[in-house]
Structures are given as structure tokens and as C-alpha cells.
Amino acid sequence: MKFFIQAGAVLGLLGVAIGAFGAHALRAMLEASGRAATFETAVKYQFYHAVALILVGMLLHLFGTNPTTVKLLNWSGYSFLGGVLIFSGSLYVLCFTGITWLGAITPLGGLGMIAGWTLLLWAFL
User: Fold this and answer.
1) Lowest mean pLDDT among 55-59, 91-95, 100-104
2) Contact by Cβ (8 Å): 110, 89
3) Which residue, 51, 42, 120, 115, is CA-closest to 85?
4) Residue 26 or 54, more confident
5) What is this structure's pTM?
6) For residue 96, which of 43, 45, 35, 42 has the smallest C-alpha distance?
């Protein structure tokens, strides 16, 4: 429970820092490379899932007595975290390096995030 709240807080903190850095210090480079929208997408999805991780941590605290719910929420949190690292991480690397083959792994991160939302739903069916 505490881990997911901490991970969400770290992702939120980094989202603000990375977003501000991109909007100010890297704006010209991102616009010149045509990657400003890609960068913005990475930051947005990082933020959405920072909040989702905090939610998972809070739900674990509230519903931590049901072993099935705990298992599904844990899998949800790890799916969110892995999804963000792969999705947003690959987009950040693409923006900073121009290594285009990373675009091929970005959807795997998206699948991780979808799995996280699916598992969160399943935990409360």
C-alpha cells in the first residue's frame, strides 16, 4: 500500500519537473524535432497514472482485509507502474535521442496501463 502511494508521489513529482523542463528548457529542441506533442503525451500519461497509483495505495488501505482484492489491486499497481515506465519512458527517450525503434515498445506500456485499469475494475466486481 505504502509503496504505491510513494511510487505515485515520485511519478507526480517527476512529471512536474520533466514537464516544466520540457516546456521551458527543451521547448525549442522539441518543436524543432517535431516531438513536442509526443513529449506532452508522455507527461500526461505519467500524471494520470501517478494519481492511479495513489488511488491503488488508498484502496489497499481501505480494502486490505480481502485477499482477492489485495492481490488484484497489487497486480493493478504493478501494471500501472510498469506501463508508465515503458510507455512514458520510451517516449521520453525517443524525444531526447530520436531513436525511433523505441516507438515499437511504447504500445507494450499502453497495454500495461490498460491491464492496470482492468485489474482495478476486476478487484471490485
Assistant:
1) 100-104
2) no
3) 42
4) 54
5) 0.93
6) 35
